[in-house]
Amino acid sequence: MRTDIVIGVISNLREKSAQFINEELKKKEICGLINSHGTILSAMYDNNGVMTMNEITKFIGKRKSTVTDIVKKLEKLGYISRQKSEKDARVIVVTLTKKGWDFKKIFKGISAELLEKTYTNFTKEEKEILMGLLLKIRKNFKD
After folding, report:
1. DSSP letter (8 states) at residue 82
2. Cα–Cα dist 26/82, whole Å
3. CB proximity list for 90: less than 8 A, separation 6 or greater
4. What is the 8-class DSSP label of residue 121?
5. What per-residue string of b and e applies to 67-88 under the rule 16 or more CB within 10 Å gives b?
6. What is the pLDDT of residue 128?
7. Where are the beta strands (DSSP E) in 68-118?
8. What are the structural domains of the chain?
9. How far apart are CA 8 and CA 127, in angstroms?
10. CB within 8 A of 91, min separation 6: which ones?
């Protein structure tokens, strides 16, 4: 088995998973959202629907400018709102809207389908080994 194409395989899996998510969103007639929005929505769901921009940036490990662009798009689509903190005007607080919370069930459903597809024909042990190896690769790239 070739081991020199690991990054290409990981990249291809990322593309395939993004395509799967985008197709599922289209099937469910969810307009405007794309797979990259899911990272922020997931972070928001995991943090009771309220986070600062800095918290989101740290949580998802993306550049501040990238997070700002995605947050602006999600705000335009009505899934979140942004406002300055009452305690510190330099801090932007991001909050899920009703539309954002209403989307959670669909989001979790698509996520479950993606995981099911990902792990088809895997044993529990294989899943754990795979996850361990991927985390080991990621650690190699940490600054």
Report:
1. E
2. 27
3. 84
4. T
5. bbebbebbeebebbeeeeeeee
6. 98
7. 80-84, 92-96
8. 6-141 (1.10.10.10)
9. 20
10. 52, 53, 54, 84, 85
Q: Which two tokens stand for residue 45?
A: 């769901």
Q: How far is CA 46 from CA 8, 66, 80, 104, 136, in A?
A: 30, 20, 14, 11, 24
Predicted confidence (pLDDT) at residue 70 exceeds the cutoff of 70: yes
3-state secondary structure of 48: coil
**Cα–Cα distance list, 42 to 39, 56, 76, 83, 106 (Å):** 5, 10, 18, 20, 12
Amino acid 123 reads T
Under the banding of pLDDT at 50, 70 and 90, the label for residue 139 is: very high
The amino acid sitting at 113 is: E
The amino acid present at 9, given as its one-letter code, is: V
d(CA 94, CA 71): 8
Which pLDDT band, with edges at 50, 70 and 90, does 143 fall under? low
Following CA atoms 109, 113, 115, 119 in sequence, which dihedral angle do they give, to the nearest 10 degrees?
150
Q: What are phi and psi of 85, to 5 degrees?
A: -65, 140
